[in-house]
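FORM 7B - TANDEM STRUCTURE REPORT

SECTION 1: FIRST PROTEIN
SEQUENCE AND TOKENS:
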Amino acid sequence: MQNIKLSLSSIVVSLLITFSGCENKKEEDKTPQNIEKPYIGQSIMVIVPTLHADLIRGPIMQEAKKFEQKTGARIRVVTPNWNDTIKKTKQSLEDPNLHYDIFVVISMWQGMLFKNNNIEIVPQWVKDKIDWDDVLPIYKNSILSYDNKAYGIPYDGDCINLYYRKDIFENKDIQNKFKKETGKELIVPKTWSEYKVIAKFFTNWDWDNDGKVEYGNALLRKKGDVAMLQFFATAAAYAKHPNDKAYFFEEDTMKPKINNPAFIKALEDYKELINYSPKGGVNFAGNDLRNSFVTGEVAMAIDWADLGIYAAENKISKLDSNQVGYAQIPASNQVYNSKTSKWENRYNQVSSISGNWSIFVNKDSKNKKLAFEFASHMGDKELSKELVSTSGNAVNPSRFSHFTDFEAWTKSGFSKDSAKRYLDEISKSLTNKNVVYDITLPGAGDYYQAIDDEVYNFLIGDISAKEALDKTAKKWEEITNKIGRESQINYYKSSLNTNE
């Protein structure tokens, strides 16, 4: 009997050991899987607008799938239209039942994110992961920072430059014709006055001998689009004083500068230049502008860095990269000083980094670590190098490393020489200390909408430039008063990183 008991005990012990081993084996199977995929069972929502084709959202949707496979997380990417993105972002910040963990926003939308302290500061481990030191100072100290604290993760870097037909400008017959008609040498314009003369010269004749009439230039002007960002870039030479960081408003009062003599002159120039554009130029969107340049319809264009890669890589482009010239946005020999209310005779070359897209993490995210992991994935140094040298996603250079790897650019259709020229001009823009940023205040969309409406009325001939900008200034004052002048002053100073 004792032997039977011992046998039964041995069997029980043996079974316990066996089951224990099975459990341990199950744990061993699970553990490495969890290490490899640490976010199984967790999910986040990302909101990014639907733009033309796959611009901005395309890479995010593609990378979300790769990130899910790698980490086990669920990344839901929501892509409303432009206006619905604004509406849903506002709702998410106010309604706990509609919750986005990551906001991918153009810089003009940043004010609504900061209005109620909704955004998490970028932690040091994220900075280390994305190589924060590689991000250009002009971005990490302005667009990505607010009140001298880093809140944004870099995705797209934007600057607006001049593009021109290098082959046409170097054509001896055209140079002689220009000299005969204008008494001047045909050179790449350094000022808006030179630009206007050249744009007029190239308008309404067949300068490339293709049997079609061509034009001088193309500008972005479609109402309700982001045309005002380009207007402010072109106005900067007259209106952005190099000794004054504030551009849109007086820093201490929020009084609009928009109807001062500099902006009035810029708006009058703007209308004149549309006369030297293809038919329908008053309604050009970004795609229209780029197509008109790469198909040989215009001699010059003002655009973001998208146009360079578009000309080199897009299938509809009739140009090779060696036919394209790159230059700084034109300057002026006069600049208006709003503090003294006087014009100053000085050369004023201003860069514009309007339009940047950045990534922000919601402070109320329930999966904040995961949100920062995906945000840092999209801001990854090597991924960004791939994106900026690929046409069709609107992701432009924002890092030191984007300017050193010519191989990535030559794979996209640039010759080594054209890639160097392209990147050199972008680099000049991004190292210029006299620079225009976007309005990033609460209500920024309302400020832009007000001027967009009045500028359009001026361009179609209903009112004068002064009347249009006087009406804009009045609307801007009303917007400021409605939101709260004192709070707007504080936000404006914070956006300029000038708060004490």
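SECTION 2: SECOND PROTEIN
SEQUENCE AND TOKENS:
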Amino acid sequence: MESPIVATYSLSKDEIQELVAEAARLGAKQALYDIGLHDDEAGTDVKELRSLLDSWRSAKAVAWKTVVQTVTVGLLSLLAVGLYFKNK
């Protein structure tokens, strides 16, 4: 039975930090490439996406406000019509 050869490395703290930092950079580059944000237009794309999200959130807030306002006006109108016919 042959014993496997085991390579042992001794790295300093600075070398480990450098390896981790390089791995993080490469991972980030790959992640951006995978989602299509690897070109020169990526910054503009992200700004446009943020603007689109802000617009969506604003539109959603206005829509909910309109729904609540419409329901409130509808209920008050029904109440007014009911009072009108009761007192007629």
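SECTION 3: OBSERVATIONS ON SECOND PROTEIN
The radius of gyration is 31 Å.
Residues 9-38 form one domain.

SECTION 4: SIGNATURE
Preparer initials: ____
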